[in-house]
Design goal:
The chain is of the alpha/beta class. It has two domains: 1-47, no CATH class; 61-204, 3-Layer(aba) Sandwich (Rossmann fold). 45% of the residues lie in helices and 9% in strands. It contains seven helices and five strands; from the N terminus they run H-E-H-E-E-H-E-H-E-H-H-H. Strands 3-2-1-4-5 form a five-stranded parallel beta sheet, sandwiched between helices. The longest helix has 31 residues, at 2-32. The radius of gyration is 29 Å and the shape is globular. It starts with a helix and ends with a helix.
């Protein structure tokens, strides 16, 4: 009668050992997943994060001090372009709907394309006001107030790059814009401005 007991005991030992090895292998896999493939304890792996030029712009060396000193942007997409060209610190007024990059809420809100506060805009003494090309009556009002403004292309994928080039042209940031467009163009199907511009264009139609 001892044989069945010995057999059961043997099976139990094998089962316990197998479970123990499986648990250890699970922990081993979790640890290795944090390392580069190859020999153990090598340099930890990491995934590079794409640079957000709106938050962390790169300005051409010869253009750092150029451009207007006091800018008002009346569209979120334009606000982001201004920041991407390294002039976020020169914004004295923004559209109510401009909520990016972080910290932009500290810039004075002057309304939007349809309800712009003209008295507040004029009181900010802007050197340049940037509006979208479909701003309609707002452009007429700015003209009557003799305030300098520039219209920026808006609404299509192609306009994303044209808007960068247009803002750069009136702000003396041509080389900075060329760098930005060269970096961003391969990712144009997923660009922030392309998606937002398309949505706003549909809303205004």
């Amino acid at each position: 009668m001892k044989r069945p007991h010995l057999l059961l005991m043997g099976i139990g030992i094998v089962f316990v050992v197998a479970v123990g090895l499986r648990v250890r292998s699970q922990f081993a896999r979790k640890e290795v997943s944090l390392e580069e493939s190859g020999s153990a304890r090598t340099k930890p792996a990491f995934i590079p994060v794409p640079r957000d030029y709106v938050v962390d712009p790169v300005v051409a060396a010869g253009e750092v001090g150029k451009g207007p000193g006091r800018i008002i942007s009346l569209a979120p997409s334009i606000t982001e372009v201004v920041c991407a060209l390294g002039m976020g610190g020169r914004l004295v007024g923004r559209s109510t709907y401009s909520t990016y990059p972080p910290g932009i809420e500290r810039v004075v809100s002057v309304g939007s394309l349809v309800d712009a506060n003209l008295a507040k805009i004029k009181g900010l003494n802007p050197d340049l006001i940037l509006v979208t090309s479909n701003s309609g009556s707002l452009i007429d009002k700015l003209t009557k107030l003799e305030l300098r403004y520039e219209t920026v292309p808006h609404g299509s994928l192609a306009d994303v790059y044209e808007s960068i080039e247009k803002v750069a042209a009136v702000c003396d940031r041509g080389e900075t814009a060329r760098l930005l467009v060269r970096v961003r163009r391969p990712a144009d199907t997923t660009g922030r401005h392309a998606r937002r511009g398309a949505r706003r264009s549909e809303a205004l139609d």
